[in-house]
Amino acid sequence: MKELEVRIEILKKLKSQVYLLGFKSFYIAKRASPGQLLHLKVDSKVTILRRPFSIHKIKKDKVYLFFKLRGRGTKLLSQYKKGDTLNIIGPLGNGFNCRSSVIGHRSSVLVAGGIGVAPLVFLAEKLKEMQNAKCKMQNIVLLGARTKEEILCESEFKKMGYKVQVATEDSSQGFKGTVITLLKNLLSTIPAQGWSASGGNHQLSTNIYACGPNPMLLEISKILEKYPQINCQASFEQFMGCGIGACCGCSIETKSGYKKVCKDGPVFNLREIW
Ligand SMILES: Cc1cc2nc3c(=O)[nH]c(=O)nc-3n(C[C@H](O)[C@H](O)[C@H](O)COP(=O)(O)OP(=O)(O)OC[C@H]3O[C@@H](n4cnc5c(N)ncnc54)[C@H](O)[C@@H]3O)c2cc1C
Ligand code: FES
Questions:
Q1: Relative to the alpha carbon of 68, which ligand is closest?
Q2: FRET pair for 11, CA 20 to 30 Å: which of 181, 206, 265, 273?
Q3: Residue where one domain finishes, among candidates 92, 125, 147
Q4: Coil, strand, or helix at residue 16?
């Protein structure tokens, strides 16, 4: 982890409130893993605290973030221009553990609620990179949002070979409802030993990777009470102060005591939280 000055190479509006920001950083690109975050100093005169953002994707030495307008900090960030410098600290925290999917031959179900899709593109790329060409496990992405306008990155996942299912609350695209119903329907189709083209009696199962609002993550944890063999890693959002484990501002209660989202997380085993 390091404090760096980076020069913005791309900052563009993708949808009404969502922006893609890209810069070159060999240091971050070489060290970051999916689910880790960067802490951005937006404008220290107006916003004292840094803002945390997940790493959206990495292409060679280019690092991308994906952000949605929320308040003052993200509004200011959206007004930066190509060539401006940005002060960042990162990569921070513990991200997703992809090894259990690859080594354990587990099918991967990525569940995204709204802007929660941000870290899952980097994760999807990493999973694909780690799975060898002969891997027959299924990779599925469930995308949920209020409207079609808020469905993000669908074509990127498809290009990587993921099956994508979409749910919108206003039924403007895909299934009418939430990503939670999609997940329930999907899990009800899993054979006892997980999805696998090879069948057999080895212990195949499924890993879920989720990012989205806390109520969505809570619903997933309730669904998983019925599926004790399924593991879920979830990325949690929490207000942050220092971002480096020094202030306890981002603590959340887990079954084994309080943990810091910026340092112990942001990715936790869902069963550790609920
Ligand atoms: C680990 C992590 C990863 C994140 N990744 C992304 C991402 O990839 N894309 C994205 O759009 N957003 C992401 N967020 C949320 C993002 O940090 C907030 O939207 C942003 O800080 C809001 O700042 P603001 O000044 O615009 O909003 P304001 O509401 O004005 O912010 C005021 C204060 O609240 C904090 N804050 C507000 N909302 C949140 C929130 N949901 N989570 C944490 N702190 C918040 C701000 O950091 C700031 O200190 C992530 C949050 C965390 C904790
Ligand atoms: S933000 Fe300070 S400990 Fe996590």
A1: 1
A2: 265
A3: 92
A4: coil
pTM value is 0.94
| Residue 32 C-alpha from the chain's centroid | 13
Question: What's the order of all strands across the beta sheet hosting 51-54?
Answer: 51-54, 37-41, 85-92, 2-15, 18-24, 62-68, 57-59
Q: Cα of 250 to ligand 2 centre, how many Å?
A: 5
DSSP-derived letter for residue 19 is E
Q: Which residues line ligand 2 (CB under 6 A)?
A: 240-243, 245-250, 260, 262
pLDDT tens-digit readout, 146-186: 999 999 999 999 999 999 999 999 999 999 999 999 999 99
Domain of 229? 99-273
Residue 94 C-alpha to ligand 1 middle, in angstroms? 18
Q: Which of 239, 242, 250, 262 to mutate to test the pocket of ligand 1 (most atoms within 8 A of CB)?
A: 239
Q: What is the pLDDT of residue 203?
A: 37
Residues 249 and 268 grouped into a single domain: yes
